[in-house]
Automatic annotation (TrEMBL):
Residues 134-190 form the Elongation factor P C-terminal domain. It is found in: Cytoplasm. It comes from Granulicella cerasi. InterPro entries: Elong-fact-P_C, NA-bd_OB-fold, Rib_uL2_dom2, Transl_elong_fac_P/YeiP, Transl_elong_KOW-like, Transl_elong_P/YeiP_cen, Transl_elong_P/YeiP_CS, Transl_elongation_fac_P. Involved in peptide bond synthesis. Stimulates efficient translation and peptide-bond synthesis on native or reconstituted 70S ribosomes in vitro. Probably functions indirectly by altering the affinity of the ribosome for aminoacyl-tRNA, thus increasing their reactivity as acceptors for peptidyl transferase. It holds the Pfam family EFP. This is Elongation factor P.
Length: 191
């Protein structure tokens, strides 16, 4: 029997099951009553792990949730086609398929062979977690021109080998490897 979790005990990044669907808690706010006999309410910003939709919902503090049958497995990215993206489970060597909706914009940060965490609900793949940072090669960027800082902006656009476009400092050149934060899609440092 899975442990039950009270709404007031939810923390950021916790997983919980609500109405048979797995959710991830993104943020939580507790409202305590000012009047005697009022109920403590917990407002939760949560992401549906099956659809990716984000919603706000208010629960009573004593509402209980099951822990979902979720597991994360290490998998290497193989390739993508019109039917989806394919990953190789590193323990069972089974091929896992994620649809384009499940992938979202994650393909902009993926290279062939990269290891990611594939999330499974009841044994079926439902999404993935990228590494915090990835190392990618700059495929194209404008050369920096001396005195280019007059606009106050000291960055320029760079297209990476995956096709993603991000802003990078002026000193970054074509062919250079850079480290990119996958959450913010921002330049972190040179590799």
């Amino acid at each position: 029997m899975a442990a039950l979790l009270d709404a007031i005990e939810l923390k950021r990044k916790n997983f919980f099951e609500f109405e048979g669907v797995p959710y991830r808690c993104l943020d939580k706010d507790i409202s305590t009553p000012t009047a005697r006999g009022g109920q403590t309410l917990v407002r939760v910003k949560m992401r549906n792990m099956l659809t990716g939709a984000v919603m706000d919902k208010t629960f009573k503090a004593e509402d209980k949730f099951k822990e979902p049958d979720l597991e994360s497995v290490d998998a290497s990215y193989l390739y993508s086609d019109g039917d989806g993206s394919y990953f190789l489970d590193q323990t069972t060597f089974e091929t896992l398929t994620l649809s384009q909706e499940m992938m979202g914009d994650a393909l902009e940060m993926l290279l062939e062979g990269m290891i990611v965490q594939v999330n499974k609900f009841n044994g079926n793949p439902i999404g993935l977690d990228l590494p915090i940072q990835v190392t990618l090669t700059v495929e194209y960027t404008e050369p920096a021109v001396r005195g280019d800082t007059s606009s106050g902006s000291v960055t320029k656009v760079a297209r990476l080998e995956t096709g993603a476009e991000i802003r990078v400092p002026l000193f970054v050149k074509e062919g250079e490897k850079i480290i990119v934060n996958t959450d913010s899609r921002e330049f972190s440092s040179r590799a």
